[in-house]
Structures are given as C-alpha cells and as structure tokens.
Amino acid sequence: MIPSFATEPSPRIVFGANRVDRLGEDVERLAGRRARVLLVTDPGLIAAGAAGRVQRILEEAGHAAEIFSDLTGEPQAR
After folding, report:
1. What are phi and psi of 24, to 5 degrees?
2. Assign residue 32 a region: left if phi > 0, alpha if psi is -120 to 50, beta otherwise?
3. How much helix, strand and coil, in percent to the nearest 5, is found in the chain?
4. DSSP states of 48-60 as a string?
5. 20-60 pLDDT, tens per residue?
6. Is residue 36 classed exposed, middle or buried when 0-12, 13-18 and 19+ CB atoms within 10 A define those classes?
7. pLDDT tens digit string along 26-36?
8. Cα–Cα distance between 22 and 38 in angstroms, integer?
9. Apex CA 35: angle with CA 33 and CA 39, to 5°?
10. Looking at per-residue confidence, does 14 or 41 come out higher?
11. Secondary structure letter of residue 66 according to DSSP
12. Torsion, Cα of 16, 38, 31, 6 (10° steps)
C-alpha cells in the first residue's frame, strides 16, 4: 500500500487565456527585478512566433531574455 502524502509544486503552475502576458510579473517574483532569463525552445516555436512573443513580454517587463534553440531532438539510445 502506498502511504498518503502531500506535495506542493515548486514553482507553482498557473494557466489561463493570455496568461503569458503576465510572465514578467512571475519572473520578478521568482528572480527579482531585471532578471536574466534563458528561453530554451525548438525551431518550431520560433517559426510560430511564440518564443519571440515570450521574449518581448519579458523584455518589456525589464528582464533580459535570450533564446536558445539549437536543439537536435531527443538523445538516441546506443
């Protein structure tokens, strides 16, 4: 039998329509003002404009945001 337990996710998970517009506030709460953020994404999200939108939102909130997308996919089993 599995014993009962409680957990609190850290950091908290938030969601909702256009919630990304408040991402700058979340970063400030977690990392302070003028935080440095590394956005790790894939080329598909860059092509869709999502990564650029997130970067703009963070920069408008006063944070420095860099995008890293030089990903090659999941590692292969050897």
Report:
1. -60, -40
2. left
3. 35, 15, 50
4. TTHHHHHHHHHHH
5. 999 999 999 999 999 999 999 999 999 999 999 999 999 99
6. exposed
7. 999 999 999 99
8. 17
9. 145
10. 41
11. E
12. 60
